[in-house]
């Protein structure tokens, strides 16, 4: 992949840089951009990676990962367009932004791969979905898949599914955190100390996730295995269904999908 530049060294950008180094990539082959000098100095000291401007990154890197917020994309593309080297691979980690936006703003023929990662990248357990743009071929998708494999798992999807991916796995960790928060509050309501309730729920979440990841059983079967006739769990499930938790979760994910699509439409010419 040659030299890799991460444009925007926020939490996700830093997590990717850290994962690349942990995966054996030399700091000399990595670059990053960061608009805050103090933050740039901190990252240089921590990882030994050189901080550069967007234009310098475009001139030096073979693969550029754009990891800025969607509302900040226009000045980044304006800086990239005049100096981007032919056939440099551009990888977008910007939620909601289609590859067509990059292809329209950057030199004709620029290969672009769209990615939706999520915050478990911070602990090397990301779920990333990749989609090829108009000018990106299988070799580009393969390069991006290898790049992201150092920080988690990767799946390829058509770009038409990226808004759904954003809603489901991009925002997904927040739904789990929200549920864990509510369960901890329930434990406190039932008389448990906060620290005990938190430990009980977090470890239960870790164990349940491991069973889902390593086992071959469908989530319904795993849930049924805990749900004894006339027991405590079935009474809890009844209350969840009575309060429409399943329907509310589906509606929430649909709303996230719609917002992702809205972000993309905001950048249409």
UniProtKB/TrEMBL annotation:
Its EC number is 1.5.1.2. It is an enzyme of class 1 (oxidoreductase). It catalyses: L-proline + NADP(+) = (S)-1-pyrroline-5-carboxylate + NADPH + 2 H(+); L-proline + NAD(+) = (S)-1-pyrroline-5-carboxylate + NADH + 2 H(+). It is found in: Cytoplasm. GO terms for cellular component: cytoplasm. GO terms for biological process: L-proline biosynthetic process. Residues 159-263 form the Pyrroline-5-carboxylate reductase dimerisation domain. Belongs to the pyrroline-5-carboxylate reductase family. Catalyzes the reduction of 1-pyrroline-5-carboxylate (PCA) to L-proline. PANTHER family: PYRROLINE-5-CARBOXYLATE REDUCTASE, PYRROLINE-5-CARBOXYLATE REDUCTASE 3. This is Pyrroline-5-carboxylate reductase. It comes from Saccharomonospora glauca K62.
